Amino acid sequence: MMFEGLPTPCYVVDEGRIRHNLEILQQLEKDTGCHVLLAQKAFSMYSLYPMIGRYISGTTASGLYEARLGYEEMGKENHVFAPAYKEADMQELVTICDHIIFNSFAQYEKYKDICQAKGVSVGIRVNPQCSTQEGHDIYDPCGYASRLGVTKAQFPEVLPEGIEGLHFHTLCEQNADDLVTTFQAFEEKFGKYLYCIKWLNLGGGHHITRKDYQYETLVKLIRYIRDTYHVTVYLEPGEAVALNAGYMVTEVMDIVHNDMDILILDVSAACHMPDVLEMPYRPPLSGGYEANQKPYTYRLSSMTCLAGDVIGDYSFEKPVQIGDRLVFEDMAIYSMVKNNTFNGMPLPGIALLRENGSKEMVRKFDYQDFKMRL
């Protein structure tokens, strides 16, 4: 009933759950003095930026367009990191970002003068070479031959003048114990540099708003860093801002049978929830269970021509019918920011579920949105 009247497919973002997450992140800032930034690569629904900006310190970007979005729509602290920067992009970045992080000393040398002239605080990303992830090699910046961050072997004995911060990002949907492990490896290799910088950025991948997150462990670590090295600590959670705060509403278009019953949905894993195929990831489904756990099991697939465009196998207590609506959960993160129009699939609409229960369509997409990208 909550999603009646919405077009399908449609992302629906829950304003109340976003606020709940933000209250936790705001409390972290109060408890530790750290600065929390929204990693826009995970969630860029800028219609909510005014609300987000009332709770946390700003935004962080992975390139010019995200940096411009954070600058225009939130207007608070604005950080950026990229493996490399184009000269034309840098000309604008130094006017809209207060922190720019470089992936190599060569990039720093190339752009240090323009950063200094504009008063931008500059940092270097390091690779602590400490992998704490399991099964997500695609998201492991400490893996073999990673291009992300400078290793200790490539680091100078003395930091070049003008570098004010260090940054590492190694986590993906992880708890505070993994951050502690990573920081200990970082401290062993790079700790001496902490005495000559102003800030340390611990990156993202922190599931701070998850129910089982080790909040006190994180607080203890941040306080240790501040008290020992007297630096400002930054964190860049993306998922934590919108964790469990979104839905994907889809309609069953057809049911076919080949070895098992297969639902053809108007939503696509390949187009609308790419992490399902990339990680891989099994999205939670309202009223859906593990295959064969309930009497009726179906494979959920889409209308694209890609044979592997399969969301997963789910079971239900009752038979599913053509025209039924299904609701996937936790669909705010890495969904809208990564979707595409493969096969000419329409982009899902974007709706906001207000705290008073009302629904508001934020965006609708049509043929022109497909055509303009080609």
Residue ranges: pLDDT <50 for 5 or more in a row? Answer: none
CATH class of the largest domain: Alpha Beta
The count of β-strands is 17
Helix content: 25-40%
Distance between the termini: 38 Å
Report the radius of gyration as a whole number of Å.
22 Å
CATH homologous superfamily annotation of the largest domain: Alanine racemase
Order of helices and strands: EHEHEHEHEHEEHEHEHEEHHEEEEEEH
Query: Which geometry do the CA atoms define?
Result: elongated
- State the helix count: 11
- Number of self-contained structural domains: 2
Protein name: Carboxynorspermidine decarboxylase
Enzyme class: lyase
GO molecular function: lyase activity
EC number: 4.1.1.96
Folded structure, characterized:
- The two termini are 38 Å apart.
- The protein has helices spanning 15-32, 49-53, 64-73, 87-96, 105-118, 176-190, 215-229, 239-242, 269-272, 275-278, 367-371; strands spanning 10-14, 35-39, 58-61, 77-81, 99-102, 121-125, 163-167, 199-201, 232-235, 246-257, 261-265, 289-290, 296-301, 310-316, 325-329, 349-353, 359-363.
- Strands 1, 10, 11, 12, 13, 14, 15, 16 and 17 form a nine-stranded mixed sheet that branches. Strands 2-3-4-5-6-7-8-9 form an eight-stranded parallel barrel, surrounded by five helices.
- It is elongated.
- It folds into two domains: 33-242, TIM Barrel, CATH 3.20.20; 246-331 and 339-371, Lyase, Ornithine Decarboxylase, Chain A, domain 1 (Beta Barrel).
- The model has no long low-confidence stretch (mean pLDDT 97).
- It is built from eleven helices and 17 strands.
- With 374 residues, it is an alpha/beta fold.
- The longest helix is centred in the first third of the chain and has 18 residues, at 15-32.
- Helices cover 28% and strands 23% of the residues.
